[in-house]
Write a structure and sequence with these properties.
The complex is a heterodimer of chains A (168) and B (359). Chain A contains five helices and no strands. Chain A has 168 residues and is mostly helical. In chain A, α2 packs across α3. In chain A, 33% of the residues are buried. The N terminus and C terminus of chain A are likely disordered. By secondary structure, chain B is mainly β. In chain B, the strands form seven sheets. In chain B, strands 1-26-25-24 form a four-stranded antiparallel β-sheet, with no helix packed on it. In chain B, strands 2-3-4-5 form a four-stranded antiparallel β-sheet, with no helix packed on it. In chain B, strands 6-7-8-9 form a four-stranded antiparallel β-sheet, with no helix packed on it. Classes of the chains: A mainly alpha (168), B mainly beta (359). At the A-B interface, α2, α4 and α5 of A face α1 and β18 of B.
């Protein structure tokens, strides 16, 4: 790779990376919009179901409002290039939260309530765990391959360390 | 550093990601801690637990967790099967000999719902399924079940004789559960005996036990510390309380219009999980930890509280230890023997009550 025609191959990797980030963001946006949408479509059901959660009893009302709003805000962040990196961090955090929640419910809760919307409701809990882990890894990957500030025109892919310290 | 080859920004991003990871996990853990603390708060009651009340005797593998206790006598008991309603297993108290009976249900109905329950009051077998609704009866030995007259949909049924039953049904007008006495020709009620606290349906849920020989009916609520003793004509003899302090149902009820469903909108606080009666005693598997229950011990066993059916007074408690990490899922007392089901095992205990507490 390095020996022959450095520049074209390299250009290709940059493109691939951009495509990868776009794809990741798209998938996450789809996931969050779908999840928030299905919750809001039948909001009463969501609120009632979340009230049954042994972990959230005391905070059911604020959580029921906050979760779909946060999902939509993250989807918005992911949609614009300028806010995509914080969006990816936020997606990562939210997906870790969901995953840790599921893990706890599966392992320690006396019973398993379900407050997911739409198709996600049909997944069994283990599948759900893998599904979430996949998105956690996807978001982490997105963060790690995200181009650094001041995309270096000198074409050095694993970019040198000297860029200014950033807004994020 | 662990990742010397990565450039500085990469490292910083990994660091941020691990902050996010740690933060989310910490959030869930603190939620878990809070809910655990709420669960373990003091229940403000104590148990009296003399030692050696329940001595383990025999154990038997049933090879299936679908069996449930249908009834019995001091020498043998009967297991019915949730997934195969035509099976009835008769087992001697030594858990050695067993006989399998095949009930003939063909004449009854094509469609039998999951709520079907078989009760054996030796030698009578009765089958109750309140959704269709369907009542049927037969005898051990002649196992063809015949359909009985039935006038109502019901949630619970307790047979008094082959042709009379006590039913718990939902009154559409009062919007709550009521008790009914049904004979082949009549359906009788005595006003709202069950007391509505929240919605009338969930909040009055409980268990119904009939003891026709002693002219007794017991209704014990699942979500509050009360039970009622009635005679078999639905006249209240007395009302009594279990030892815990939850006198008001602790949950709220929500409706989901899109599914035309009424459901609990908060986790219910169970008070009385299971119960049975035998002789002059009521046995209750309580869901609450007493202040004098050792926490570790409580986690590994199920407390059974015993009350007198003569006056409703609390007598004593004992603990049934978990078997292979399974909690008891069903139990009954026949004579001096307690039969408990743990997952797919049957376990018998011999009961010895201190002479002063015998009724």
């Amino acid at each position: 790779m390095k020996t022959l025609t450095g520049t074209p191959t390299h250009k290709l990797t940059i493109d691939k990376r951009e495509i990868a980030i776009q794809t990741i963001s798209c998938l996450l946006v789809l996931l969050f919009v779908y999840a928030a949408g299905s919750k809001l479509m039948d909001y009463t059901k969501f609120r009632v179901e979340i009230g049954k959660s042994p972990l959230l009893t005391a905070f059911a009302a604020p959580v029921a409002i906050a979760v779909p709003i946060i999902e939509l805000v993250i989807a918005l962040l992911l949609s614009f290039t300028r806010t995509r990196l914080p969006g990816l961090y936020a997606s990562f955090t939210l997906m870790v939260l969901f995953t840790a929640y599921i893990f706890y419910i599966l392992r320690f809760s006396p019973y398993v309530p379900c407050s997911c919307g739409g198709v996600l409701q049909k997944l069994n809990w283990t599948t759900h765990l893998w599904f979430n882990l996949f998105f956690v890894l996807l978001a982490a990957l997105g963060v790690l391959i995200f181009p650094y500030l001041e995309p270096s025109k000198s074409n050095k892919a694993p970019c040198p360390a000297d860029s200014p310290s950033s807004s994020h | 550093m662990a990742l010397p080859s990565l450039p500085k920004q990469s490292k910083r991003r990994l660091l941020y990601l691990s902050y996010c990871l740690a933060g989310s996990i910490a959030l869930i853990l603190s939620l878990a801690f809070l809910s655990e603390a709420a669960k373990n708060s003091s229940n403000a009651f104590i148990r009296m637990a003399p030692s050696h009340v329940a001595m383990p005797t025999q154990i038997r593998d049933l090879h299936s967790a679908s069996w449930y206790l249908a009834g019995g006598t001091p020498t043998r008991f009967y297991l019915a099967n949730r997934s195969a309603p035509a099976l009835l297993m008769e087992i001697g108290m030594q858990l050695k000999d067993s006989t399998l009976h095949y009930l003939s249900l063909i004449s009854l109905s094509n469609r039998i719902s999951k709520s079907l329950k078989i009760t054996v009051d030796s030698p009578n077998i009765s089958l109750a399924e309140g959704v269709s609704p369907l009542l049927a009866g037969g005898r051990v030995g002649d196992t063809t079940l015949h359909r009985l007259a039935n006038h109502a949909y019901f949630g619970l049924a307790a047979p008094l004789s082959p042709s009379t039953q006590i039913l718990r049904a939902t009154d559409a007008r009062l919007k709550q559960n009521i008790l009914l006495k049904q004979t082949p020709d009549t359906l009788m009620s005595k006003g709202p005996i069950l007391e509505k606290q929240v919605d009338g349906i969930f909040c009055t849920d409980g268990y119904l036990h009939a003891q026709p020989d002693s002219n007794r009916l017991i209704y014990i609520y699942s979500y509050r510390n009360q039970w009622i003793c009635l005679d078999t004509n639905l006249n209240i003899r007395y009302k009594a309380r279990t030892i815990d302090t939850i006198s008001r149902v602790k949950f709220s009820v929500g409706s989901i219009p899109s599914q035309h469903a009424l459901t609990l909108s908060s986790p219910p606080t169970f008070v009385n999980q299971q119960s049975c009666i035998n002789g002059n005693y009521l046995f209750v598997h309580s869901a609450l930890r007493a202040d004098n229950d050792e926490r570790d011990l409580y986690e590994m066993s199920s407390p059974i509280d015993v009350y007198s059916l003569i006056d409703g007074k609390y007598l004593l408690s004992f603990y049934l230890p978990d078997y292979r990490k399974h909690k008891i899922r069903d139990f009954r007392v026949f004579g001096n023997t307690l039969v408990a089901l743990y997952d797919h095992y049957a376990y018998t205990y011999t009961l010895f009550f201190p002479p002063k507490l015998q009724k």
